[in-house]
Amino acid sequence: MSMKRIDAIRLKSLVISKLSNAGLDEKTCDEVADVLIHADRTGVHSHGVMRVEHYCTRLNAGGLNKAPNFFIEQISPSVAIFDSDDGMGHSALIAATDHGIELAKETGVGFVSVKNTSHCGALSYFVEQATSQGLIAIAMTQTDTCVAPYGGAERFLGTNPLAFGFPVEGSEPMIVDFATSATAFGKLLHAKETGSKIGTGLAIDKDGNETTDPNKVENLLPFGGHKGSGIALSIDALTGVLMGANFSNHIVRMYGDYDKMRKLASLVIVIDPNKLGNALFATMMLQMVTELRAVKPVPGRESVLAPNDPQVQYAKDCDENGIPVAPGVYDYLVS
After folding, report:
1. Residue 96: CB atoms within 10 Å
2. Whole-angstrom Cα distance, residue 116 to residue 248?
3. Can you give the CATH number for the domain in which 171 is found?
4. Which of 39, 53, 157, 280 is a plausible cystine mate for 147, CB 3.0–4.6 Å?
5. Is residue 150 part of a domain?
6. pLDDT tens per residue, range 307-317
7. What is the tens place of the pLDDT at every residue in 104-141?
8. Treating both helix axes as pointing N-terminal to C-terminal, what angle do 89-107 and 26-41 enclose, rounded to 10 degrees?
9. What keywords are assigned to this protein (predicted)?
């Protein structure tokens, strides 16, 4: 099944049109569309425009607040709690990260816990908000469960992603953004949408046996065995448990219960290296990624890549040739 290539400006207008029809205001539509197209432009189609139909379904069913009142409670000069009032997670995380940036510039660090939120899309977008201003960022969020814990045959963990962003002098930032599952749940949806198989060691069927058929997947596996399992638990603790919200199997499911607010929690931490006495941080990061790329590659590899290199390359191709969109997703957007 071949993907359609769509110009970013046209794709954004299609997304905004759908979200606007579902009742979101102009600013929110613009923010959500930006985050989704950022994901598709960087090759993370699992978090791109394929999600629009889901958001519209939830908006229409009443499981998202179309007109939330964001509220920031300042706990200390560096710490704040951001109540997203069940609004769109993308807009909440943009606003929370902006606040974290302000705090970091004043005090050296901004720690912003986000509560009463919803699915926010690719975390790389938010850490790039900080790196574009020469700051470091860490972002994480919980999700509903679809991952078996290490040694388990039943779901207990979300894909609970984690992202780091580091500014690099005169270059694209170094972004590390990954799900703590062996693959993102959205990539599973993408495999179903495109009729392809998934890799080995990524998922199990209802009996706990490994499978590569996306249609037989009951649960995903954590990456790196007990290590990924431990990090996923830690993210749930730093988001949902910290905010006195839900965790693990208590979280309202993304697909289903469309009329219920999801009450997810996220966390954004922004650090200003200048305040820590290092005005040369971005320059040193350039040295780090340059030396990393100079490492001798293993046989069969052209070179060692720095985190974010493949995404930057993918984005260039999208800008020249259009963003790939699955036919079923395109049909929905133009309908």
Report:
1. 31
2. 16
3. 3.30.1370.60
4. 157
5. yes
6. 999 999 999 99
7. 999 999 999 999 999 999 999 999 999 999 999 999 99
8. 90
9. Oxidoreductase
Residue type, 85: D
Bridge partners (DSSP) listed for residue 222: 181
**H-helix or E-strand containing 58?**
helix 52-61
Which residues form the domain of 155? Answer: 4-278
What DSSP designation does 196 have?
Answer: -
Identify the helix (H) or strand (E) that includes residue 130.
Answer: helix 124-131
Q: Rounded to the nearest 5 degrees, what angle is found at the Cα of 38, between the Cα atoms of 248 and 261?
A: 35
Residue 142 phi, psi (nearest 5): -90, 160
Q: How far apart are CA 196 and CA 206, in angstroms?
A: 20
Angle between helices 26-41 and 309-321 (to 10 degrees): 110
Is 97 within a domain?
yes
DSSP letter for 157, please.
B
pTM to 2 decimal places: 0.94
CA gap 156, 146 in Å, rounded: 7
Q: Which two tokens stand for residue 127?
A: 């850490």
Within 8 A by CB and 6+ apart from 320, the residues are none
Residue 152 placed within a domain: yes
- Residue the block writes with tokens 């964001």: 70
Whether 236 maps to a domain, the answer reads: yes
CA distance linking residue 40 with residue 188, whole number of Å: 15
Confidence class for position 193, pLDDT limits 50, 70, 90: confident
Whether 70 and 87 have beta carbons less than 8 Å apart is answered as: yes
CA-to-CA separations, 208 to 14, 148, 151, in angstroms, rounded:
40, 9, 10
Antiparallel, parallel or unpaired: β 162-166 and 174-178 = antiparallel
Please give the structure tokens belonging to residue 162. 């984690």
Residues labelled as active-site residues: 119
Structure tokens, 12? 């954004």
Question: How many domains does one find in the chain?
Answer: 1
